[in-house]
C-alpha cells in the first residue's frame, strides 16, 4: 500500500467520524437509545465485511486491523440486540397478582 492510498483511506475515515458525530449530535435524547440500538444491530453487515477482510489479509497489520474490526463489530451486534431487548421488556405488561389477592 502506497502513501497516497493510505492518505485517502485516512481522509475518508476522519470524514466519516466527523459526519457521524454531526448526525448523532442532532438526534433528540428521547430517540437516541432506540436509534442506536437499531443501528448497532445493523453492524452485522460490518462484521461480515471485517470477516471478508480478514480472509483476504495479506500482511500482519491488515490481519490485526481486521481482527479489531471484527471485535468491535461483534460487540456492537451483541450490544445492539441487548439494548433492544431491554427496551422491549419495558413495554411488556407485568402479570397481575390476582391469584395472590384471591388467596388472602
What does this entry look like structurally?
With 104 residues, this protein is mainly alpha-helical. It has one domain. The protein is built from 5 helices and no strands. The chain has helices at 3-25, 29-41, 44-55, 60-90, 98-103. Helix 2 packs across helix 4 (60-90) and helix 3 (44-55) packs antiparallel against helix 4 (60-90). The longest helix is centred in the last third of the chain and has 31 residues, at 60-90.
Q: How would you summarize this macromolecular structure in one to three sentences?
A:
The chain has 104 residues and is mainly α. It has helices at 3-25, 29-41, 44-55, 60-90, 98-103. Helix 3 (44-55) runs antiparallel to helix 4 (60-90).
Question: How many structurally independent domains?
Answer: 1
Total helix count?
A: 5
Poorly predicted segments: none
Let me know the largest β-sheet.
none
Strand content: under 5%
Features:
104 residues, mainly alpha
Please write out the topology.
Blueprint: H1 3-25, H2 29-41, H3 44-55, H4 60-90, H5 98-103
Helix pairs in contact: 2-4, 3-4
Amino acid at each position: 500500500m502506497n502513501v497516497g492510498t493510505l492518505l485517502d483511506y485516512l481522509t475518508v475515515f476522519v470524514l466519516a467520524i466527523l459526519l457521524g458525530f454531526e448526525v448523532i449530535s442532532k438526534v433528540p435524547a428521547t430517540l437516541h437509545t432506540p436509534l442506536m440500538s437499531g443501528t448497532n444491530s445493523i453492524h452485522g453487515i460490518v462484521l461480515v465485511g471485517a470477516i471478508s477482510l480478514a480472509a483476504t489479509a495479506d500482511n500482519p497489520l491488515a490481519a490485526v486491523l481486521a481482527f479489531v474490526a471484527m471485535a468491535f463489530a461483534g460487540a456492537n451486534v451483541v450490544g445492539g440486540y441487548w439494548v433492544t431487548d431491554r427496551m422491549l421488556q419495558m413495554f411488556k405488561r407485568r402479570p397481575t397478582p390476582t391469584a395472590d389477592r384471591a388467596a388472602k
